[in-house]
Amino acid sequence: MKLWLEKSFSTQSDLSPYQIWMWPERQDNFGFLVSQGNQALIIDPSTSYVTKILNHLGVDKVTLALTHHHFDHIGGLESLEKYNPKIYCSSHDRSRILRANHSYESIFLWQSLSFSVQKLKGHTQGHISLYNSEFDFIFSGDVLFSLGCGRLFEGTAEDLHKSLKYFLGLPEKTQIFASHEYSLKNYEFLADVLNLPNHQLKSELLKRIETEGKTIPTTVGFEKSHNPFLKCVLNSPNQSQAIQSLSEMRQKRDLY
Ligand SMILES: [Fe+2]
């Protein structure tokens, strides 16, 4: 199944007066942008393609919000220099994202949108996610994906447990703008390795890919029902068992 082979972008949510846009980047990354008039908040510019979108939208004032330091999330920074943007990242990541010029505080404000800045360790130590409670959406970066979660490059299963507990505390309708399209691969893991085939789930995913070219944004409610990592947390009788089963599940997924 081909995902968004054409470079295209579309409005995902009309949060009047704001709009969220998303588009495909690299192999399976997403780019995200919130616009209002001639201003935009860009989340994790992966490549210079974002500048084409800014031109198309007539944006000339840009702010950047980064989730973490991995190259597929910051590769477009150089192309945005001409906008002289404020570039936010976690204080932990300032030493490894040299173009960043601001550190997040606990609340990040852009225009009248307020985001709660959540430090969610596991994938990396400096990773943050941005949650807006007014419209109920989150830019989750590489912490949580549809039917999966990010690899533990710099963290432990304990870190992952804490991070996933945060998502479980959000309203079910919360839209999760995850940074990668991994749903089908994650479904195959669910069916082949965990031996939990679910034909209805598979056809739902395929239908979204056929009609939208992607399965993001997902929702907290959908992930609670289907994401095997969230289920480790939900179904374990206590925290230490949850951490143990998360650790085992992550190892299996890494090997898949
Ligand atoms: Fe990453």
Structure description:
This protein is an alpha/beta fold and 256 residues long. The chain has one domain (4-255): Ribonuclease Z/Hydroxyacylglutathione hydrolase-like (Metallo-beta-lactamase, Chain A, 4-Layer Sandwich), CATH 3.60.15.10. Helices cover 32% and strands 27% of the residues. It contains 8 helices and 15 strands. The chain has helices at 49-57, 71-74, 157-168, 183-192, 199-212, 220-226, 228-235, 239-255; strands at 10-15, 18-25, 29-36, 39-43, 61-65, 86-89, 102-103, 107-110, 113-119, 128-132, 137-141, 144-145, 148-149, 175-178, 218-219. Strands 1-2-3-4-5-6-7 form a 7-stranded mixed beta sheet, with helices on one face. A 6-stranded mixed beta sheet has the order 8-9-10-11-14-15. Strands 12-13 form a two-stranded antiparallel sheet. Helix 3 (157-168) crosses helix 7 (228-235), helix 3 crosses helix 8 (239-255) and helix 6 crosses helix 7. The longest helix has 17 residues, at 239-255. Residues 1-7 have low confidence and may be disordered. Bound molecules: fe (ii) ion.
Question: Looking at the structure, what is the overall shape?
Answer: globular
Hetero groups: fe (ii) ion
**Helical residue percent band:** 25-40%
CATH-defined architecture: 4-Layer Sandwich
Number of helices: 8
Which structural class should the secondary elements be placed in?
Answer: alpha/beta
Radius of gyration (Å):
18 Å
CATH top level label: Alpha Beta
Domain tally = 1
Name the CATH superfamily assignment. Answer: Ribonuclease Z/Hydroxyacylglutathione hydrolase-like
Which strand order spans the largest sheet, edge to edge or round the barrel?
Answer: 1-2-3-4-5-6-7
Strand count, sense and barrel status of the largest sheet are: 7 strands, mixed
CATH topology-level fold name = Metallo-beta-lactamase, Chain A
β-sheet strand percentage: 25-35%
Q: How far from one another are the termini?
A: 19 Å
Give the SSE string.
EEEEHEHEEEEEEEEHEHHEHHH
Total number of β-strand segments?
Answer: 15
Mean pLDDT: 93
Poorly predicted regions: 1-7
